Inverse folding.
C-alpha cells in the first residue's frame, strides 16, 4: 500500500470542525472599588489530577498557572532567554562542592500573611516532598492518613531531589542545602516547579493533603480563591506581593475544551485570552484588528509512549517500524504550517554544552518500516492507540494522519478516544498513547530522570524500563565530567529512540495564544503564563 499522500493528510485534517469567528469586542470587567481588571483565560483544561499540587499535577495544563501562586528559590526568565535569576532567594553561594547557601528575600509574605522563613524552605525540601517519618516508613497496605501525600508525589520528589542529604537553617534568612555528592545541575533542579516553596504552617494545619492541594498557600502574585475541578480556577491579587502590586485584580482560568468555543468566546467578550490555538486559525483571528495571536516554539516536544509489555510491541523492531512509518515533515507542514520543527532527538538546543548537535532527527522510511515488520513476524495484530482528543493542540488531526501512515506500511493501529488520563493510562490493553516532555532548565536532567529513571513515570506506570539506561542515569545525574555526561546522554538516546524505543517523537511543540491586541503581554517559552506587572499592561487609547 503506498504512503499517505499530502492531499490525503490535508483531507484528514480538514475533517475537523470549522471555527466561526464572529462577535463583538471583549472588554475587561472592572471592579467598582478596584480599577484593576478582571482577566479571563480560556483553557482546554485546568488540571488532570483535580489538585493544584504540581508534583501530583505534573502536566502541561498545570504548568500554565502554577507560577501565579507558587515560586521557587531560583526563578527562570520564561519570557526571555530562559536564564536563571533570583526568585525567593535574593542570592546564593557555593560553600563547597556539595553545599549551597541561599539568602532569602526580606519581607516576603505568604498568602496567609506569614513571612517567608527558613522553616518554610526546610519543610518544602523535606516533609513536603518526602513525607513525615511515619509516612515514609508506613508498611505496605497500612491505613493511609489523610494528611499523607499520594505516592506519586514522593516518587516525583525522588527523581529530582534524591541527592539532597540535609537542609538546615544557618540564620533567620539563610538556609543551607547539602548534597550526598557534587551535582552540576543543582541550580537548575532548585528552579524547577517541584521546588516551589510552600507555607509550612498552612500545610501542617490543613485537615488533609487533598484539601491543601486544592488551595495551596504560597508567595506568588496571586492567591487561590476558588478551584472547581473541570470548571474554573479563580485567583485574586496578593497585594502584599514582594514583587509589587499585581496588575490584575482577579485572574480566572475557565475550562473550555473545544477550540471553536474558546475562539468564539474571545470574540464575544467572554474571554480575554484563548489558549492552544491551531496555526490554521491564526490568519482568521488576526483579520480582526482587535485581536492577535502570540507564541511559538517552547521547551516541550510531542511524542507517543509505547507500553513495551503489550504483546505486539514487545519486539523493538515493531516499535522502530512505527517510528519510521511517520512522515513527520508532512505533519509539520500540513497541520502546523511549518511553525514547528522535528527535533534532533529527545533534546533541545538550549542545553548548550549538553546539546548533541551531530544527532539526526528521526527519519521517515516506509520501505524500512515494512522490512522490519516482516522480519519481526508482525501479522496485523491490532495495536490500541488511546488519546484524549482535546488535550494537545492538533491532537486528533495528528492521530488521524498517523493512523493512515501506519496503515500504509501494514500496521493495524486502533485509535480509541478516551475522556480522561485515567482511562488513557489504564494498564489493561494499553499499547500506545500521546504524551509530551518538557525541559524545565537547560540540561537533560530536567526531565530524563523523571521520565526514564527508576522512579520515573514510564517505569512507575509500567510502560518501559531498560537496564542499561538505568546504569547510565547516575553518570548523567551525578558526574562532574562533561565528556562523561555527554557520552552517557548520547548512549541513552541511542537506546530510548532506536535500539529499544520507549517512545516515538513527533515534533517540537509550538504554543499559540489568541488575545486582545490592546493588551501588552509576552508569551513564555513554556506553557507558563506570566501575569506579573513586568509582563502585563493595557494600552491606553
Amino acid at each position: 500500500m503506498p504512503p499517505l499522500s499530502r492531499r490525503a493528510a490535508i483531507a484528514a485534517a480538514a475533517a475537523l470542525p470549522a471555527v466561526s469567528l464572529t462577535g463583538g469586542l471583549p472588554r475587561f470587567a472592572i471592579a467598582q472599588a478596584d480599577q484593576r481588571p478582571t482577566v479571563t483565560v480560556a483553557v482546554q483544561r485546568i488540571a488532570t489530577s483535580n489538585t493544584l499540587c504540581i508534583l501530583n499535577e505534573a502536566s502541561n495544563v498545570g504548568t500554565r498557572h502554577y507560577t501565579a501562586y507558587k515560586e521557587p528559590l531560583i526563578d527562570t526568565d520564561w519570557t526571555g532567554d530562559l536564564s536563571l535569576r533570583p526568585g525567593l532567594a535574593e542570592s546564593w553561594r557555593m560553600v563547597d562542592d556539595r553545599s549551597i547557601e541561599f539568602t532569602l528575600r526580606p519581607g516576603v509574605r505568604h498568602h496567609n500573611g506569614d513571612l517567608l522563613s527558613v522553616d518554610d524552605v526546610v519543610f518544602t525540601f523535606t516533609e513536603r516532598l518526602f513525607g513525615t517519618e511515619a509516612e515514609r516508613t508506613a508498611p505496605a497496605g497500612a491505613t493511609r492518613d489523610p494528611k499523607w501525600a499520594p505516592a506519586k508525589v514522593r516518587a516525583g520528589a525522588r527523581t529530582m531531589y534524591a541527592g539532597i542529604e540535609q537542609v538546615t537553617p544557618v540564620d533567620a534568612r539563610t538556609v543551607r542545602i547539602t548534597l550526598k555528592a557534587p551535582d552540576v545541575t543543582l541550580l537548575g533542579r532548585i528552579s524547577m516547579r517541584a521546588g516551589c516553596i510552600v507555607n509550612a504552617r498552612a500545610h501542617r494545619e490543613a485537615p488533609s493533603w487533598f484539601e491543601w492541594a486544592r488551595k495551596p498557600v504560597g508567595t506568588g502574585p496571586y492567591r487561590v480563591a476558588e478551584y472547581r475541578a473541570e470548571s474554573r480556577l479563580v485567583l485574586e491579587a496578593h497585594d502584599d506581593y514582594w514583587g509589587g502590586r499585581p496588575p490584575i485584580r482577579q485572574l480566572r482560568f475557565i475550562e473550555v475544551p473545544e477550540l471553536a468555543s474558546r475562539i468564539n468566546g474571545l470574540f464575544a467578550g467572554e474571554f480575554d485570552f484563548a489558549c492552544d490555538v491551531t496555526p490554521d486559525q491564526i490568519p482568521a483571528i488576526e483579520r480582526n484588528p482587535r485581536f492577535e495571536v502570540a507564541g511559538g516554539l517552547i521547551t516541550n516536544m510531542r511524542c507517543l509512549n509505547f507500553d513495551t509489555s503489550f504483546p505486539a510491541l514487545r519486539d523493538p523492531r515493531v516499535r522502530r517500524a512505527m517510528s519510521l512509518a511517520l512522515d513527520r515533515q508532512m505533519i509539520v507542514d500540513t497541520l502546523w504550517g511549518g511553525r514547528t520543527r522535528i527535533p534532533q532527538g529527545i533534546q533541545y538546543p538550549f542545553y548548550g554544552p549538553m546539546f548533541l548537535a551531530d544527532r539526526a532527527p528521526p527519519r521517515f522510511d516506509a520501505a524500512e518500516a515494512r522490512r522490519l515488520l516482516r522480519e519481526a513476524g508482525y501479522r496485523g495484530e491490532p495495536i490500541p492507540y488511546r488519546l484524549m482528543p482535546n488535550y494537545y493542540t492538533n491532537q486528533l488531526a495528528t492521530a488521524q494522519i498517523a493512523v493512515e501512515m501506519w496503515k500504509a506500511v501494514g500496521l493495524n493501529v486502533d485509535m480509541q478516544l478516551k475522556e480522561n488520563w485515567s482511562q488513557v493510562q489504564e494498564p489493561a490493553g494499553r499499547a500506545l498513547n500521546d504524551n509530551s516532555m518538557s525541559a524545565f532548565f537547560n540540561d537533560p536532567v530536567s526531565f530524563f530522570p523523571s521520565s526514564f529513571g527508576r522512579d520515573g513515570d514510564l517505569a512507575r506506570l509500567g510502560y518501559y524500563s531498560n537496564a542499561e539506561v538505568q546504569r547510565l542515569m547516575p553518570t548523567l545525574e551525578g558526574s562532574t565530567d562533561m565528556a562523561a555526561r555527554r557520552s552517557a546522554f548520547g548512549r541513552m538516546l541511542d537506546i530510548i529512540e532506536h535500539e529499544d524505543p520507549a517512545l516515538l517523537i513527533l515534533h517540537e511543540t509550538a504554543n499559540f495564544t489568541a488575545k486582545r491586541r490592546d493588551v501588552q503581554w509576552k508569551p513564555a517559552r513554556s506553557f507558563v503564563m506570566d501575569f506579573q506587572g513586568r509582563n502585563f499592561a493595557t494600552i491606553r487609547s
User: Anything to note?
Assistant: Residues 482-499 form the longest helix (18 residues). The radius of gyration is 24 Å. The CA atoms of residues 188 and 441 lie 6 Å apart. DSSP finds 19 helices and 19 strands in the chain.
